[in-house]
# Entry
Amino acid sequence: MNRKTALLVIDAQTGIIEGMSHDPVYQKEALLQTIHSLVTQARSRNIPVLYVQDLDVAPEGDPAFAIHPSIAPAPHEPVFRKKATDAFHGTDLHERLQEIGIDHLVIAGCKTEYCIDSACRRATTLGYDVTLVGDGHSTNDSSVMPAESIIAHHNRCLHGLSNLEPFVVVRTSAEDVFAPIHDFYRTHE
# Structure
C-alpha cells in the first residue's frame, strides 16, 4: 500500500528541552541531534514537517515558548498551538493532515509520558499509522522513576498498540522511519 508520511514534532520547545524552570530533559543534546536529523531528512525528501507547541510552557513571545532554535520550523511549516496534552484536541491538526493526504505519522518530541503518549494513541483512533522514533522523544525524571525508564517503558507499551486498524511501531532514528513498515506486520500476522 502506498503511504503518505509526515513528521510531527511535538513540544520541542526551549523551556521544556532546556528546562528553564527545572532540569533539562534526559539526554537533551542527543534528542536535539536526533530531531534535527529527522527534520533534515524529511525536508530533503519533501516529507511535510509539522510542529506542535504547548501553550502551558510559557507565555507566547517568551524564549521558553519558542521551538528550540536548533530545530526551528521553516517559514512554510505549520505550527499548531495546543492547550491539552493531545495535539489533536482543540487544534486543526487532523484537518490539515487530511487535506494533504497523510496516513502515516512519524512522531518525535517531548514529553514522553504526556504529549508523546497522547499523540500516538489519539493518532491511531483518527486513522493514522504511527512510527514513534524511540530515541526521538524525552522527558524528565519523576518521583517514581528516572526519565530513562519512562522512555523505555513507553517505547515498550506503545510498540504494537492498536486502536481499530491503525497502530504504533517504535523504531530508532538509525532506521528509515519515513518508510512505514505497518503493512509488513499486517500481511505477516
Remarks:
- The beta strands are 5-10, 49-54, 79-82, 104-110, 129-138, 168-171.
- The chain has one domain: 5-187.
